[in-house]
Structure formats: structure tokens, C-alpha cells
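chain below, 321 aa
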Amino acid sequence: MSTLNDRIVRYGELRPCKTAFIDAHTPGSNQKENFTIIGGGVSESPDQHVHIRDTPGFNIGAAGQPPNCRNSLHSHTTAEVFFVLKGRWRFFWGRNGDAGEFIAEEGDIFNIPTGIFRGFENVGTDYGMIMAILGGDDAGGGVTWAPQVIEEARAHGLVLGNNGVLYDTKQGQELPHNVQPIPTLTEVQMKDFPETPVEAVVPRYVARYWDLMALSGKQPAKVIGTDALLKDKPGFEVDFLSRTSLDDSPITPDKHVVLMPMRGHWALRVGDFDTVLNPGDTCLLKPGESYSLAPSMTGEASLYRVTETDDPAGATWSGAA
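prediction:
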């Protein structure tokens, strides 16, 4: 039986994987680190460490990258939500990454539409970190790479099999006899991925940190959900808490909840257990597990809270503004 300590992953204890994806050898992408915090995540490498294997209807992960390092263009069939924990990031999308882009600052959150190719890079001056919420229990089942990403990876020795496993030909690895390289999409198939302009994405799928701070003065700000700032049904809801959003009354959720501090130190009490959650920490709470939460020190304090819902694990993107 797991204890609450088993369901808290501290930022300083995160274990990265540097060979998680097909572009791990591609110049410009070969310094990125992937973190799988809750659930199996989307890694294609058997070297990926999973901190908490429970899947509360969604996955939690993170990406860490030095300046000028990028994550290559890919698409998801389920939700992919990022908030910037550290640094400054450029998100871009489209077949060649030039259909639209925007710069995300610390605390900003982006509910990336499904069905479009997307990528991101650290455009700050220091090592950066973005936290991820991925829809569904099997977040790795719906990832598609842009054709040029697969071709560039092959040129640098990495081949992704149709079994979802990476093989490094420069290390002498060969695909098993019953495994074929994952095929690149045809031109006809590529037409199913829209070249969505920035004005159709940013207003509907991006929430800025300081706007959320202003909205969370007396109660949590609803960020993602049917009646939230970013209206969607991706299989979870997200709200944003600041210093004055909650009192110290116990809360008893009927679904899984994940707490992800952005700024400040948060005192968490679950039954007789007391702890402090810090920026970059991740805590999984089970249904029926009463908790109270409050900032433990003076100064700026903010936290993202993710709650499981019964909705299917896909965003409601329809391609329309």
C-alpha cells in the first residue's frame, strides 16, 4: 500500500532520460532531457525512468533543455498541456514549424490543439523546464513524427520501429526480424494536419501567468475545462491557485488530483501527514483523500491543480477559430 510520500516526486529527485525520442542524436535536439513523473509518458526509450506508475486518467511529465535546444515536430491524438516552470520558450507548429508561434514566459500555460504538428525550444539564457500534462492512461499511443524528423534521425543512426522502440544503428542495434521501421507519412496523409494560423491558437489555448494571478484573488481560477478560461474536455481539468485562493478548510476530491507548485512553498496536510510542496514538485492525491493546502511563507505563491474527469482523453480542437 503506497503512502503519500510515495506519491510525491521532488524536483531535485527527478531522473532524466537523454535518449527518450527519435531525435536524440539530431543536432539541435540532442541535449534535451525527458522526465516521466506520473504514468508511462510518451518515451520511446527503455532507459526512461518512471517515478509513479499509477495513471489517474492522465500522465504528468516534464522536459528540460539548455538554451537553443528544441523538441522536434510531432503530433498527438490526445491532449498535451505545458506550463513553463523555468525559462523562456518558443512554441511553434505546422508541417515545417512555420504556421504559427508564440513565446511563453514562466507560469504561462498552453493547451496545444490535437492534430497539428508542434515543437518547442528553449529561447532563454539558462537551462529551462516545462511541465507537461498528457491526456489518457496510454499517452504514448498517439504520437506521430513529422516526416523530416524521421529522416533526419535515420541519418544520425536512430530508427523507430513500428513496435514503438528506438534502435541505435551506430551502436550496432538492429530491428528484430518481425519489426519494421515506422513509415513516414505520405503527402496525402499530411493533408490531414492543418496549418493553423496563430490567431486561431493563442486566444483559445494560451493563458498567461499574470492574468491567472489576477483571476485567482478570491478563488481558484479555472484554466482548462468546460466552463474555464480555455474551454476544453481533455480528460482532466486544470485550475490555478494563488495566495488568497483557498482557506485552510479540508477538501475531499472524488477524483484523482495532482498538485504542481509554480511559485512559493505550499503547506499540505493529508490526515496526520504534513509536508511542504515546492516549485517543480508533483503530488498525486487519491479520490476521497481529504487535504488542506495553503502557502507556508510570505511572498509570491502559485500552484496548478489537475483533476481527473470522465471525459475522453482528447482535446476538443475542431480546426475552427
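The chain has two domains: 4-171+184-204, 215-308. The mean pLDDT is 92.
thats it, cya
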